[in-house]
Design goal:
With 642 residues, the protein is an alpha+beta fold. The chain has 4 domains: 161 residues, no CATH class; 147 residues, no CATH class; 81 residues, no CATH class; 216 residues, Methane Monooxygenase Hydroxylase, Chain G, domain 1. Helices cover 65% and strands 9% of the residues. It is built from 23 helices and 12 strands. Strands 4, 5, 6, 7, 8, 9, 10, 11 and 12 form a 9-stranded mixed beta sheet that branches. It has a 3-stranded antiparallel beta sheet with strand order 1-2-3. The longest helix has 49 residues. The relative contact order is 0.06.
């Protein structure tokens, strides 16, 4: 029981059962120690006679038997009336401490009796009977341990009287267990409230795994039910809940302000009122002798609502254990606010963070990064920088869930490590998929350029008015949009340390767009009354180029799904690569046919140059798409190998 912080909170009533237990234990110890003092005196006076070492008695009272045996066996007289023994000064100090513990316990349950006992104790000390030195007069031993009426008050008589008082108090603090809580003197109406609290606590208790804590004590005091839980091992980290009918008051202390705020956030579904987080000072509590105090009040309309709140309070406590340690861990991978949000999510999902800490915490995540992505995520680099904020948060949530579920199911650390590594790879693949989506938009714009040129040629073939200036304007805007996509894509490739192949795919797609925008400019210069055979040859070349953009788009779309392990998608993606090469060959044939037609027919210089340059620009675009296809194949093969 964390008695100091409970007393700081003014909730000393709940300490009585623990203090009585401590007092009774002190009674057992002090009796053994006074017996040891008497045995030492006897041995010193008659060293030839066998002396009892009080071994069994010492062990029963929780005292180191070796020390007591050494004290008795080494006792000897100095002169006629003084006793010296190894460890004698320590024994005398322990006797004083045990007596003080008994008096404190009696005073907690019966203040007047405690005051009387304290006065008697001070009188014994004032007489010099308890001075802690390495020697003691034999007469002092007799006065300390004697109980005769004529000898006046003695320590032994005081201990006997205190023991009687403690026994009476112990009857009023008759202990029983209720769903795991140690309870004392409950009234009938208290039991349902304690059971509700323990129902919530027991529902999540297993999530602390090997960590100590969550011991609960409940008792009736001053007309109300008090429930106390020590949470973990931090001295100033406790919760005391007072229940009076359907009104619940929660008093919570913490050395970490952020964790106290987190605790409050877990009750947002209840119409509870919480005080400000006040900073208090107490010697020995917290790193700087300070802690934060928050008080919550909940007025339930009925017992059922009250019990629901109590169950929520019980269930929340396990998520406070090592919370700050988990927050520090997560802050090495994501931003501070996101780390807190992940822990809140884990608490609401009844997953918690202790599982991840139990399995190694940072070492577990670090090994996943080293094994799954040594070249993608640099040393000390945060996950939100490598994966993006949303993906990093999702990955850490999945890691918390995997760790908890594995421990609950008894799976090995190796299994969890493999699962986390695989999940990290999936997130990295999704990053690649996001970048490939940008490439897909580039290809879509390339298709728009081909379509614009084809429409211009169709208008010329039909003898309709064709606005070359408008064609140049529209295609220029498309090319600028594609440039912006390429620029942002390259930045993301660098920022996320993605595969260099994706950057090369962006480059080839951009080059194809540039060639097609140049083709649009040349198309705008074609004479309005161009020869139909030339326009037909150019239209056929546009059809091939349009097919290349469509095939490239389908190949990228299929490649985005290859990491998910879909065989059909890998086959579609590789098939698209072959079709891109076929399109490039077909474009070569069409370009040469158009060039041959120009040279055989004797057209004017303007017509001849515009047709040849337009054919070459479109053919170069299909060359870029063929190169794009070869890169895409390499990208797919890496995923298939993985």
């Amino acid at each position: 029981m964390k008695t100091q912080i409970i007393e700081e909170l003014g909730q000393g009533d709940i300490l009585l059962p623990a203090l009585v237990a401590e007092g009774l234990a002190a009674n057992d110890r002090i009796k053994v120690r006074m017996s040891a003092l008497q045995a030492a005196a006897h041995h010193a006076q008659e060293p030839g006679r066998p002396a009892s070492d009080l071994g069994v008695e010492s062990q029963t009272a929780g005292i180191a038997a070796a020390g007591i045996a050494a004290l008795i066996g080494g006792a000897h007289l100095i002169g006629q009336n003084r006793l010296a023994a190894p460890g004698l000064a320590e024994l005398m100090q322990n006797i004083q401490d045990d007596a003080a513990t008994m008096i404190r316990a009696v005073g907690a349950g019966a203040a007047s009796e405690g005051s009387k006992a304290q006065a008697r104790f001070e009188a014994i000390r004032a007489a010099g009977l308890l001075d802690a030195t390495g020697e003691i007069e034999m007469s002092r031993i007799a006065r300390l341990t004697g109980v005769t009426e004529t000898a006046g008050d003695s320590l032994h008589r005081l201990v006997m009287d205190l023991h009687k008082q403690l026994n009476r108090l112990a009857v009023s603090c008759a202990e029983e267990a209720l769903d795991g809580a140690q309870v004392f003197g409950l009234h009938g109406e208290d039991r349902a409230a304690v059971a509700a609290f323990m129902k919530g606590l027991n529902a999540t208790r297993g999530l602390k795994f090997s960590h100590p804590g969550l011991d609960t004590m409940a008792m009736r005091a001053a007309g109300r039910l008090l429930i106390q839980n020590d949470i973990g091992t931090t001295d100033a980290h406790v919760v005391v809940i007072a229940v009076k009918k359907n009104a619940v008051t929660v008093t919570y202390t913490d050395v970490h302000l952020a964790r106290a705020k987190f605790f409050i956030s877990l009750f947002d579904k209840f119409d509870a009122t919480w005080s400000g987080l006040d900073r208090h000072t107490a010697a020995g509590l917290g790193e700087d002798n300070s802690f934060y105090l928050v008080t919550g009040q909940y007025e339930a309309g009925n017992a059922a609502d009250r019990n629901e709140f109590l169950a929520a309070a019980g269930a929340a406590l396990v998520f406070l254990i090592d919370w700050n340690k988990a927050r520090k861990l997560l802050r090495t991978w994501v931003a501070k606010d996101d780390a807190a949000r992940i822990l809140e999510w884990a608490a609401r999902q009844r997953i918690g963070h202790r599982g991840l800490l139990e399995l190694g915490g940072n070492e577990l995540l670090g090994s996943a990064v080293r094994n799954a992505a040594p070249s993608r995520i640099g040393f000390g680099e945060r996950l939100d920088q490598a994966l993006g904020r949303t993906a990093a948060i999702d990955f850490l949530k999945a890691s918390l869930r995997a760790s908890t579920e594995a421990l609950l199911a008894g799976r090995s650390v190796r299994t969890v490590r493999d699962q986390i590594e695989a999940d990290l790879m999936r997130h990295l693949d999704r990053v690649d998929g996001t970048l490939l989506a940008a490439v897909l938009r580039q290809i879509g714009l390339a298709h728009d350029l081909v379509a614009a040129v084809a429409r211009h040629l169709a208008a010329l073939r039909a003898g309709q008015a064709a606005d070359g200036a408008l064609l140049v304007q529209r295609c220029g805007a498309i090319e600028q949009k594609a440039d912006r996509i390429a620029l942002e894509g390259r930045k993301e490739v660098d920022r996320l340390n993605a595969r260099p192949l994706i950057g090369q795919l962006i480059d080839r797609a951009e080059e194809a767009v540039d060639e097609l925008e140049q083709a649009a400019f040349i198309a705008s210069l074609l004479p309005e009354r161009s020869d139909p055979s030339l326009l037909a040859a150019l239209a056929e070349l546009c059809t091939v180029a349009a097919t290349a953009t469509e095939v490239a788009a389908s190949g990228v779309a299929a490649a985005m799904d290859v990491p998910e392990g879909r065989r059909a998608d890998s086959e579609d993606a590789l098939s698209a690569v072959m079709r891109l090469i076929d399109a490039e060959h077909a474009a070569d044939t069409c370009e040469r046919a158009a060039t041959a037609l120009v040279f055989r027919s004797g057209f004017d210089v303007a017509t001849s140059l515009s047709v040849i340059e337009l054919a070459r620009a479109i053919e170069r675009a299909t060359d870029r798409f063929a190169a794009f296809g070869h890169l895409l194949r390499r990208h797919i093969m890496i995923d298939l190998a993985a």
